[in-house]
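To the wet lab folks,

You asked to see what we're planning to order before we commit. Fair enough. Below is the target structure as tokens, and below that is the sequence we designed to fit it. If anything looks off to you, flag it before the synthesis order goes out.
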């Protein structure tokens, strides 16, 4: 609600995140913000600890499309066609439904998705009889959903394709996953905004697909606790740990839950000398400085964990400031 207090006469649109920890909270926020357009991205295990089941998480997120005005009054629910629980919300709203995803059944969909490493991704967009090739500075193939959401919001608001593509290509956009320079010619993938099993797996996929500058360089995963997973907590961390073993040359885990990932990576066959289990960011920084200082240079690091861990401290400590 505080965001709305910053609105001024010159503002034409406002985009707000409807966060929640329980049932009824999104409905309450919607009663304050009175959104015309609502976007539901996915229903995952985040918040399981507080809500108890995936079904209740879906119920909570459905409060947004339910709160939208009717289609005749300009209400639009933008829903992820690729998530069955989100797709089901189409029957729970009076608003016009606009879907996006990777399936041709969506109103807006994408195919021919290719990663260009740190340069971004390219793909082909389809809407009705129209299609166009787009290249955007988002990292990782999974980021195509981010682009689709933005494009969908633009389309329902009446923007032209030229305006939409220009916005998607904007290098000044504040992205949650960015690459910054690190010590010894390394590259740090800063994905510290938050973490869930699905987003960690997507980030590890990005780490896997990025090329290294020379044969001696290494891929390093720095992974921290994932909070609010409830009954899925242990299994979620183990799944990420097994995937880290497949992708990373070195693994540094942070926190008590992060330790589960490290132990699972070891159990899956990762060499003991390549896994470092630490309790906090300070120790992680020290370990990483040693690893980067003793290596051949050119390493690629992924840093990711839940918001509560504040793992951006690790990025800030290691980042090499480049003078303009």
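Sequence we intend to order:
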């Amino acid at each position: 609600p505080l965001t709305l207090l910053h609105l001024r006469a010159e503002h034409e649109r406002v985009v707000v995140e409807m966060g929640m920890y329980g049932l009824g909270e999104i409905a309450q926020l919607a009663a304050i913000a009175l959104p015309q357009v609502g976007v539901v991205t996915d229903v995952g295990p985040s918040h399981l600890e507080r809500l108890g089941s995936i079904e209740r998480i879906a119920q909570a997120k459905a409060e947004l499309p339910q709160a939208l005005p009717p289609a005749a009054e300009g209400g639009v629910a933008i829903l992820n066609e690729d998530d069955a629980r989100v797709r089901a919300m189409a029957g729970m709203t009076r608003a016009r439904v606009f879907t996006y995803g990777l399936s041709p059944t969506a109103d807006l969909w994408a195919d021919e998705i290719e990663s260009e490493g740190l340069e971004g991704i390219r793909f082909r967009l389809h809407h009705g009889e129209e299609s166009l090739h787009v290249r955007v500075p988002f990292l990782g193939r999974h980021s195509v959903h981010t682009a689709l959401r933005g494009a969908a919001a633009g389309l329902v608001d009446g923007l032209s394709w030229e305006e939409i593509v220009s916005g998607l290509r904007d290098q000044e956009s504040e992205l949650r996953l960015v690459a910054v320079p690190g010590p010894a010619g390394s590259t740090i993938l800063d994905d510290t905004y938050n973490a869930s099993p699905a987003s960690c797996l997507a980030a590890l996929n990005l780490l896997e697909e990025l090329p290294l500058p020379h044969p001696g360089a290494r891929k390093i995963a720095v992974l921290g606790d994932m909070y609010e997973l409830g009954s899925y907590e242990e299994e979620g961390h183990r799944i990420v740990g097994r995937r880290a073993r497949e992708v990373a040359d070195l693994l540094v885990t942070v926190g008590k839950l992060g330790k589960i990932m490290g132990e699972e990576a070891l159990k899956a066959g990762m060499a003991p000398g390549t896994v470092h289990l630490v309790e906090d960011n300070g120790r992680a920084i020290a370990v990483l400085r040693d690893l980067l200082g003793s290596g051949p240079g050119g390493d690629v690091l992924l840093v990711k964990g839940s918001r509560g861990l504040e793992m951006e401290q690790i990025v800030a400590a290691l980042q090499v400031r480049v003078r303009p």
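Structural context that might help your review: The chain has a mean pLDDT of 94. Residues 233-247 form the longest helix (15 residues).

Thanks,
Computational group
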